Amino acid sequence: xxxxxxxxxxxxxxxxxxxxxxxxxxxxxxxxxxxxxxxxxxxxxxxxxxxxxxxxxxxxxxxxxxxxxxxxxxxxxxxxxxxxxxxxxxxxxxxxxxxxxxxxxxxxxxxxxxxxxxxxxxxxxxxxxxxxxxxxxxxxxxxxxxxxxxxxxxxxxxxxxxxxxxxxxxxxxxxxxxxxx
Length: 181
Known about the structure:
Layout: H1 9-28, H2 36-45, H3 48-53, H4 56-73, H5 76-86, H6 89-96, H7 102-127, H8 142-172
Helix pairs in contact: 1-2, 1-4, 2-5, 4-5, 5-7
C-alpha cells in the first residue's frame, strides 16, 4: 500500500512525536511567569506541521499527545490555555476555513474563542482557585478591558497562524522535501 503524502506511517508518527515534543518544550517555558500565555500560544503552532504535512487526524493526535504531556508537567495557566484553546485551535481553524463564507468562519472562530475563554476562566477559578478576578488598578473596568484585549489578541493570533503557515509553505517546506520519506 503506497504511503499518503509520500510518507511511511513510521515517518508520520515520528513527525507527530517531534512536534509534540517541541510543543511540550515551548510550553515548559510557561513556568517563567511573564510568558505563560504566549508559551501556550506558541506551543500550539507546532500542531500545524502534521496538519500541513499529513492530515487532520495526525494533527489531532499531536494535540492530544502534547496536551497530555503539558497537562502533566506544565504551569497551570499555560496548560489550561493550551488544552482549552491554543493546542487544538490550528486544527479547528483549518476545518472552519473550508467554509466559503467569511462571516460564518469568523462567527465560529469567535464563538470557539468565547467558549474556550469562559471554560478556562471557570477551570482556573473553581478548580485551581486562581484569583482571576483581580484586575488591580483597572478595578471594575478590568474585565471589559481584558476581554477587549483578549479578542484583539485572538484575531491577531488567527492571522499570525495564517502568515506562519504561508511562511512554512514558501520558505521551510521546500527544504524538507528530501527528509520526508
